[in-house]
């Protein structure tokens, strides 16, 4: 069995969720779509780094991982905003206020989930679970996971992104 590349940051629970799914599927190339679903649920999008990681772990060539990621409309490649804000909408986060966080960002910055602001400064995304449910509601600002946030906290973080 192929080993998962040690390049992934092991302290990030999102990667641990992806690794667990890869192992459950026996590192099989046939598991590509399922693993990409898990990546998107955890990160909110796919990017070149995650595609390379998944391809390496499953023994799938880059042309195929990239082809699958761009062919299926379900998959979202990382949007081009200067910053990304991924709001977790998994159950724990949702019942703890993720909906009002999204509403606030949308109304104040005039951006819907999956979109980037007109000035290209921020892309707003959602994820199904960041693996940090005890911190619900959780949001990832660029690559930093923050938890137990109110809509006010989130707006303050967004204002501070330089
Ligand atoms: S449901 Fe949000 S981190 Fe798990």
List keywords for this structure.
binds FE2/S2 (inorganic) cluster; Glutaredoxin; four-stranded mixed sheet; 162 residues; 2 domains; alpha+beta; single chain
What layout of secondary structure does this protein have?
Blueprint: H1 13-24, H2 32-43, H3 48-58, H4 62-71, E1 83-88, H5 91-109, E2 122-127, E3 139-141, E4 144-146, H6 151-160
Parallel strand pairs: 1-2
Antiparallel strand pairs: 1-3, 3-4
This protein binds FE2/S2 (inorganic) cluster.
Choose one word for the global shape.
Answer: globular
* Largest beta-sheet characterization: 4 strands, mixed
Q: For the terminal residues, how far apart are their CA atoms?
A: 44 Å
Bound molecules: FE2/S2 (inorganic) cluster
Structural class call reads alpha+beta
- In the CATH hierarchy, the third-tier topology of the largest domain is known as Glutaredoxin
The total count of strands amounts to 4
Instruction: Flag low-confidence runs.
Output: 1-7
What would you give as the CATH superfamily of the largest domain?
Glutaredoxin
Rg calc? 16 Å
The top level CATH class name of the largest domain: Alpha Beta
Beta-strand proportion = 5-15%
């Amino acid at each position: 069995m192929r080993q998962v590349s040690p390049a992934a940051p092991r302290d990030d629970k999102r990667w641990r969720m992806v690794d667990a799914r890869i192992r459950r599927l026996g590192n099989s190339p046939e598991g590509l779509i399922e693993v990409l679903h898990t990546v998107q649920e955890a990160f909110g999008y796919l990017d070149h780094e995650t595609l390379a990681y998944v391809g390496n772990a499953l023994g799938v060539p880059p042309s195929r991982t990239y082809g699958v990621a761009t062919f299926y409309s379900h998959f979202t490649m990382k949007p081009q905003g200067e910053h990304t804000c991924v709001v977790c909408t998994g159950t724990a986060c949702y019942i703890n206020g993720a909906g009002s966080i999204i509403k606030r960002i949308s109304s104040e910055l005039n951006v819907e989930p999956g979109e980037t602001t007109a000035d290209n400064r921020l892309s707003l995304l959602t994820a199904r679970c960041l693996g940090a449910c005890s911190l619900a509601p959780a949001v990832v600002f660029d690559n930093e996971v923050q938890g137990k946030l109110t809509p006010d906290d989130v707006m303050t973080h967004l204002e501070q992104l330089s």
